[in-house]
């Protein structure tokens, strides 16, 4: 019997979603890959199962994945943010939705205007869903390599509901990341903006810089 929450990765067929899915499936979580097309989700799930030598990752249409999950993580392309949320709104009621959206263009990295993507998500989903912002600064390629080692980036977790945020902090840590509660949902626009800093730095220095926090003693 698996007492861990079941996870859905909505839009889990792209770059960031499979990276997170790999980490959590490897840590023993039941992971459901969501897509607009069930067949596309099934193909990604099969690839992840093959890579990990397991058979527990499943692929489903987004709303079906959200309805079967305890916690869903949104990793759709930025331009589909609102439409994707509308398509899973009913399935998410009473649950946690984690928004990984960073509204920053690689070609012209600038901080997005407030409100945060996660605040916009909360407005769309309504008060029946506990929205948490996380993983906006975690590069997909960092998640996918060295699965047995910690991820060399920290995760800043923002939510108005501190209990929901702490559940996502625990989830990030189960996936090999160090994570910190970093304030309410409106703070998440700053976290999105850090992605602009990282892209600019990594272009200038041809590097793979990530975020690491120092000086905070976690309990
Ligand atoms: N890539 C990174 O390193 C990274 C790091 C941190 C955060 N993020 C954030 O994670 C999110 C996903 O990034 P990504 O690079 O993984 O994106 P991506 O590969 O370009 O796309 C992810 C998924 O979005 C879905 N999608 C595309 N158009 C859609 C539409 N009109 N409606 C609903 N779903 C649609 C697709 O899934 P289906 O076709 O299967 O439906 C696609 O596989 C973004 O918000 C990004 O800011 C990315």
Structure description:
The protein has helices at 16-26, 38-52, 62-68, 81-92, 117-125, 140-144, 162-174, 188-205; strands at residues 7-10, 31-35, 58-61, 71-74, 96-99, 130-133, 154-159, 178-181. The chain is an alpha/beta fold and 219 residues long. It has a single domain (7-205), classed as NAD(P)-binding Rossmann-like Domain (Rossmann fold, 3-Layer(aba) Sandwich). An eight-stranded mixed β-sheet has the order 3-2-1-4-5-6-7-8, sandwiched between helices. The radius of gyration is 16 Å and the shape is globular. The model has no long low-confidence stretch (mean pLDDT 97).
What is the compact description of this entry?
This protein has helices at 16-26, 38-52, 62-68, 81-92, 117-125, 140-144, 162-174, 188-205; strands spanning 7-10, 31-35, 58-61, 71-74, 96-99, 130-133, 154-159, 178-181.
